[in-house]
What does this fold into?
Amino acid sequence: MIGACTNRQMAVPMRAAGHPAEAAAVEATPRADIAARRAWDAGVLTEVLKTRGAAEWEPC
It folds into this structure.
């Protein structure tokens, strides 16, 4: 589970996952429109999370 209250917080996992352009897009999305990104963002993060073990995320 990944949780965030602000767009900036939502961008952090995208950057950690190696997707700086997506992180910038999240930050630029108006808060009222952020829910429309949910499925896309979850898909991107799901694929990255499948490729790395928990130990690799600790430094982030």
Q: What stands out?
A: The mean pLDDT is 87. The longest helix spans residues 38-49. Helices lie at 7-16, 20-28, 38-49, 54-57. Residues 15 and 23 are 6 Å apart (CA to CA).
